[in-house]
Amino acid sequence: MTKQWGPLTDYQWNAISPFFNLQRKRKHDLRKILDCILWLLRTGSQWRNIHPDWLPWQAVYYYFNQWEKANLFEQMNAALNQLDRQQQGREPTPSVLCVDTQSVKLSPMIGEYRGMDAHKLINGRKRTFVVDTQGRLWVADVDAANGADGKLAVPLVTSILWRCGERLEKVFGDQAASAVRLQQGICCRIS
User: Rounded distance, CA 153 to CA 6, Å?
Assistant: First the structure.
């Protein structure tokens, strides 16, 4: 895991460049736009704080918005996960997944997706993750913290079923996730 932000390497860019239409002539380089987006994600900064010598923040936001609407980041994540698994001598899709949630406190000014997790006494949001046995993130979602863990896990596991198909055998989760039957033919064991 990298501790500081760094621009995309040639190897990284070559792995994700097929997802972009590079034939079209543009005013701004897509690689630089993606570098700006990754900088924002790493630093937690605001759009308007993109350094003016890089690119106009409006252009970066425009491309981010278009790619998000097209689910491009999810497609890239899935393809890179599959590529990484294959490079390690594994099947492209996992047979075992793990699901868990994490409650996070919110600033008082944020009202969207807000709730009270009574068990952890946290007023904020709940992040739900589905990872494989090696920790690769396959899908994630954010909801209000008052949502039940099991109910939040169901749509995520359902959304990954089309990718894993018949290969998916088990989904591991804690007691809250195992209380809800995730999908027929998939076991959810208490870990």
Answer: 33
